[in-house]
Design goal:
6 helices, alpha/beta, globular, 16% strand, 204 residues, 5-stranded parallel sheet
């Protein structure tokens, strides 16, 4: 596989585990530092019901629904192509962070990662956080029954099948209910060390 100067970091974890908040704070913490850090969010590549995305039949309603908790729920080929293209750019960032549910499950993404992170959080807390987020308009439908049913019939299933098992690939496992003011600086130190080692290995 092609070798890039950019350090590629992956962040996976369950829905509403805190991975998006953590990675956003991580990128913000690096602003104005010696490292240029960029973020790719896997959610932006979701089909979300468009042609090409997986579906499932709701056991409770019989309705065909988009499955946003499946490895093929996003245009993974386009994401990988965009990752590689950004790392080849003359102005490529020092660090590129890939964040999303399936970041560690998908081998085509995982194989490109220099550092692999996983955000864990108890299922009941994730479910409540997801309910609060979606009822506030975070994902479109704000109906509590719809949100709860979709979680039980799709999100929980996808987490058990794909997301949770992918934690075995993580270099570092973080807690979504931890104090990010403590863990963000810790991961910044790890990233700086990884960048230094990669540059040394590349003879930079």
């Amino acid at each position: 596989m092609e070798s890039f100067k950019t350090l590629v970091v992956g962040m996976a974890g369950g829905s509403a585990s805190g991975k998006t908040t953590f990675t956003r704070q991580l990128v913000e913490a690096f602003e104005g530092s010696e490292l240029n850090v960029e973020l790719f969010n896997l959610d932006k590549y979701f089909y979300r019901g468009k042609d090409g995305g997986p579906t499932f039949v709701s056991p409770s309603t019989g309705e065909v629904m988009p499955n946003n908790n499946h490895p093929n729920s996003a245009d993974n080929a386009r994401l990988v192509a965009d990752m590689d293209a950004r790392c080849r750019d003359t102005d490529a960032p020092d660090v590129l962070i890939i964040e999303g549910l399936m970041t560690l499950h998908l081998e085509e993404i995982r194989s490109r990662l220099d550092l692999r992170l996983f955000m864990e959080l108890d299922a009941d807390v994730r479910a409540i956080r997801r309910m609060w987020r979606d009822m506030a308009g975070g994902r479109g439908n704000t109906d509590a029954k719809f949100i709860g049913t979709y979680y039980l019939e799709c999100a929980r299933v996808g987490h058990a099948l794909y997301v949770e098992p992918s934690r075995v690939h993580a270099d570092i496992i973080l807690r979504g209910d931890a104090d990010f003011q403590r863990t963000v600086p810790l991961i910044m130190t790890v990233i700086r060390d990884c960048v230094a080692k990669k540059r040394k290995g590349n003879g930079s």
